[in-house]
Amino acid sequence: MRRLIAGPGPAPADWQAVAVSQTEDAIAVILAAPVMIDAYRSGVPANGKPFPDGSKIAKIHWKPKKSAEAPTPTTMPDTLRDVDFIVRDSKRFPETSGWDTRRSTVTPSPALHALWQRRQVRGRVPCDRGGEG
Asked: What angle (nearest 5°) sits at the alpha carbon of residue 41, between those of residues 36 and 42?
């Protein structure tokens, strides 16, 4: 995965997939930044400790479609729907145990849809910010 959003810290290529899900309306993958992966490996949250500040999650949603090429019934990602971000920062968000619960959502612009369809997503891509954050 190439870096789509500017900002400090590791590029999303350093993030790891932690879950995949599918509903009738979406296919989703949840990615976590290295800070969060390291904390989880050390026992958080089962050990009673909170995830550290700087923990970040991205949840990417695609609209599903049936594959015409697969030999068996297969659902696959089609159009990129949106990307949700959540971050832990106990100083900025003390009222929610440090989590930015507004879940900043980036809705892909038509330009990103076109690039995604051609699998040519490179560098920074213009997005329209939706929701709060």
From this structure: 100
- Token output for 3: 């870096």
d(CA 36, CA 117): 30
Q: Tens-digit pLDDT profile for the chain (133 aa)? A: 333 444 445 555 688 999 999 999 999 999 999 999 999 999 999 999 999 999 998 888 999 999 999 899 999 999 888 888 889 999 998 998 888 877 666 666 666 555 545 544 333 333 444 433 3
Return the H-helix or E-strand segment holding 28. strand 27-32
Please give the domain boundaries of the chain with CATH numbers for all domains: 12-130 (3.50.70.20)
Q: Between the CA of residue 78 and those of 62, 68, 90, 105, 114, what are the distances in Å?
A: 6, 12, 36, 19, 12
